[in-house]
């Protein structure tokens, strides 16, 4: 898969946006440490910084506000998304919370109905209590989205692919709808990463990632980040980052930077494995349905090919019933039963009882989250071993 070169002009460490994706993943926002020449940015494990005099400092006053390791991570991910500004947070949900607190009581958000359970919980059980309003729509249907936008709508929020049903949203169409309505267009790009999908090219105002997932890729830290093209939005988010204080620690930022260096090759391997396993599952008589954009008969295949530069490493499948799904998950050995996704190791989960357990049962049913649904996060192990693991578990049903 060739590197992609976004628009010119953005600076980051020793490289610019003239350089290819893999080069920027390794170098953007990072220069050798001036005191030692260390290749990796130091972990600035400090809470404060000595000032030369009152009002005179080296750009750093207090670590909640600024940290050099965090700044390197922010610059690197911003470069990969092709924009100027990155604002890092302590988790993906903290990043989403910051985006939503750009709004005020009485404002309405139109959101895709198939969202990560933690996002839905944040919207419904936290932010609704502070006067924000939420309307959920099938984000596959542009006409439904446009019809849902009203005078109070200030934000259009989508995941694509969605978690866990892998439904796609036409980003260019949504960007046009948001522009005409004068509302912010926000895209959760966690599943695809900037390597496989570039929402800013399609009109996004803000892009959010859980850095915990594919960006870090090693299941050893928790974090989130918001990317912005507009300096005014960046300033408002930077104010919230500092005021609320949900910032990642420097070690977590360093771990995410370490993971980003292998993002292109990890995504290529995880996608290669996922495509093979999705085809295997789609042909298996004990699998009722497979949701993966890389399958030739995927309902939104044309959009997937047009909008994405690959199909990612997450597969959802439906078995005969919920009990079959639980037995299948229990029988897997290489795939490990755990929350989260996007690591080098393959994980499996039951969304209804794990990642989306906070969503009320009636709402899960409306969203299409059937009890028989299983989600796989495909890692970079040997594909033969992963396929054999799935075969054994299916044989045990």
Task: Walk me through this protein's architecture.
By secondary structure, the chain is an alpha/beta fold. The chain has two domains: 11-260, Aspartate Aminotransferase, domain 2; 263-395, Aspartate Aminotransferase, domain 1 (Alpha-Beta Complex), CATH 3.90.1150. The protein has 14 helices and 14 strands. A hairpin with a 2-residue loop joins strand 1 and strand 2. It is globular.
| Count of extended strands | 14
CATH superfamily membership of the largest domain: Type I PLP-dependent aspartate aminotransferase-like (Major domain)
- CATH fold descriptor of the largest domain: Aspartate Aminotransferase, domain 2
Mean pLDDT: 94
Spatial extent as radius of gyration: 21 Å
Question: What labels would you give this structure?
Answer:
5-stranded mixed β-sheet, 36% helix, Aspartate Aminotransferase, domain 2, Aspartate Aminotransferase, domain 1, 397 residues, disordered N terminus, alpha/beta, 15% strand, 2 domains, single chain
In short:
It is globular and about 70 Å long. Helix content is 36%, strand content 15%. Helix 1 (21-27) packs antiparallel against helix 2 (68-81) and helix 10 packs parallel to helix 14 (383-395).
